[in-house]
């Protein structure tokens, strides 16, 4: 008769549970994979499947600690923090793109045209949603979702399972990475904002020259048309900016878990 001790059972559970929670935290926080429109069962099933494939490749020894002990819970929390931090880095990239759309839509006069975004569980401007879809397509085109899974698989050897997780310095750098939202968002919106600024200056001069002109009846369609025209002309130049932004995100994720940079296709 085969007998299994409680220590052996805890070791088997630990070898699966701790990687599972790190991968599940990544899927829950990462863009596209963590979209609320994806059913929870699909996320848990995908995380379990990835864990089954990744667990045998972990070279670093897994601590033989009871998962339900105090130390085991501390290790569990560390895995959740690591997975969430990795996914949050790329989520910031998508928020920066959507912020650019928010700024453009506000200057065009489309601030009232909003949609419900299931990913952020809030209201998103029309242009922001449009640029977010473009960023998602670009992310899938370079297999960004697969690169994230490859990075989380390699992170178990670079950042072993244990009580020592991401350092305080890395978390402070992650907070500073949040500034990329404003920096990249403004960079993406700058061409359209420049054209709209010139348009508003021209409308102001026109109003001074012809006071009887109804600026609200004339200005709104002009700014709307100029905004859409500049957006159509500049959209082809967004590809290198998005690629560079996603590349910087993966570079930051690699540095966060002490990995060499993953080359993008």
UniProtKB/TrEMBL annotation:
Give membrane topology per the record: Multi-pass membrane protein
Where is it mainly found?
Answer: membrane
Return one Gene Ontology term, BP aspect: protein targeting
Spell out where the chain crosses the membrane: 12-34, 70-93, 99-118, 130-153, 188-206, 213-239
Name the InterPro entries for this protein: FliR (IPR006303), T3SS_IM_R (IPR002010)
Keyword entries, A-Z? Bacterial flagellum, Cell membrane, Cell projection, Cilium, Flagellum, Membrane, Transmembrane, Transmembrane helix
- Record's subcellular location: Cell membrane; Bacterial flagellum basal body
Please name one Pfam family that this protein belongs to: Bac_export_1
GO CC annotation: what is one? Answer: plasma membrane
> Belongs to which family?
Belongs to the FliR/MopE/SpaR family.
Main function? Role in flagellar biosynthesis.
- What's the protein here called? Flagellar biosynthetic protein FliR
């Amino acid at each position: 008769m085969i007998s299994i001790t409680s220590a052996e059972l805890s070791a088997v559970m630990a070898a699966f549970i701790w990687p599972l929670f790190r991968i599940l935290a990544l899927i829950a926080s990462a863009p596209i994979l963590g979209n609320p429109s994806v059913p929870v069962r699909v996320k848990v099933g995908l995380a379990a499947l990835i864990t089954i494939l990744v667990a045998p490749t972990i070279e670093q020894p897994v601590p033989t600690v009871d998962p339900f002990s105090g130390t085991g819970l501390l290790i569990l929390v560390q895995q959740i923090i690591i997975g969430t931090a990795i996914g949050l880095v790329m989520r910031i990239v998508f928020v920066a793109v959507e912020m650019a759309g928010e700024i453009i839509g506000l200057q065009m006069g489309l601030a009232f045209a909003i949609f419900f975004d299931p990913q952020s569980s809030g209201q998103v401007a029309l242009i922001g949603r449009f640029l977010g879809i473009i960023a998602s397509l670009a992310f899938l085109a370079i297999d960004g979702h697969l690169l994230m899974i490859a990075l989380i698989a390699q992170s178990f050897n670079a950042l072993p399972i244990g009580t020592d997780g991401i350092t305080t310095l890395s978390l402070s750098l992650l907070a500073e990475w949040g500034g990329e939202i404003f920096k990249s968002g403004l960079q993406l919106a700058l061409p359209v904002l420049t054209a709209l600024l010139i348009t508003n200056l021209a409308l102001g001069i026109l109003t001074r020259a012809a006071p009887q002109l109804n600026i609200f009846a004339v200005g709104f369609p002009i700014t709307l048309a100029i905004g859409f025209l500049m957006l159509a002309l500049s959209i082809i130049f967004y590809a290198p900016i998005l690629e560079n932004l996603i590349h910087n995100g993966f570079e930051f994720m690699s540095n966060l878990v002490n990995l060499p940079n993953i080359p993008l296709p």
